[in-house]
Design a protein that fits this description.
It is built from 7 helices and no strands. By secondary structure, the protein is mostly helical. Helix 2 runs antiparallel to helix 3, helix 5 packs antiparallel against helix 6 and helix 6 packs antiparallel against helix 7. The radius of gyration is 18 Å and the shape is globular. The N terminus is likely disordered.
Length: about 150
Amino acid sequence: MSDFKVHDTTGYDFNAYQPNGEVAADRWVTATHLFDDHVETPADKWERAQLLFEARDYVKAAQLLAEVVAEVPFQTDLCLLLARAYYHSAQLGKAEAQLRVIVDRDPVEHYAHLLLGRTLERQGRPEEAAPWLRLAAAFGGELTDV
């Protein structure tokens, strides 16, 4: 293994490989801009964050998504993916806060209700989770379970 490290402007290590020896999922997306003066746009960050999420690198995905959400705060799909990355990386307080923002802005967002309920359950707060899970079931058409 070489001690030579190559990093981009975000600190990404281009020599990084996954534990199974495969190339890291977002390596090529970032590498495409290594030798130009490209400034990463929110869309570029969003694409890279999706790749990190798909590779189950939830902590790095959450860090990148938090930057994108700060730049484009009213995109529900971005906010939901950020909340999911927080949830999967056990940053449950941050997931809860993000999900509460989403349901306040979009009260019929089914998945946000479901994930908020699951987040509260995972924090050991089943009484608080129950109404959110009932709403998610109702929005999802599962009225028999409500």
